[in-house]
Here is the input.
Amino acid sequence: VPDSNIHCVAVEGTFDDCQDIVKASFANKEFRDRVKLGAVNSINWCRVLAQTTYYYWSYLRVTDKHPDIGPVNYSVPTGNFGDILAGYYSKRMGLPVGKLIVG
Here is the structure.
């Protein structure tokens, strides 16, 4: 995102270490309000909503080749809860989704 208030940072550690920093930053109300902190990831509704397009796009590609297939099952790696939540919302919006598997 080419805005002057958007910055990328590198963190030595694991994903969980990064997530801890993000959660602590949002929990600090004074800091959060002073810097007008925002996030775009699975904790942000807009990202989850955008991820629903993955399910629609893949469903349309599968049914292009197999029009009579019926509901499509999806498997998402553990740790991508925002992605599987997008699949759940896609199913609730009427996309013919079978099983949603987290593995």
Notes: The longest strand covers residues 97-102. The two ends are 32 Å apart (CA to CA). The helical segments are 15-27, 29-35, 45-65, 81-92. The chain has a mean pLDDT of 88.
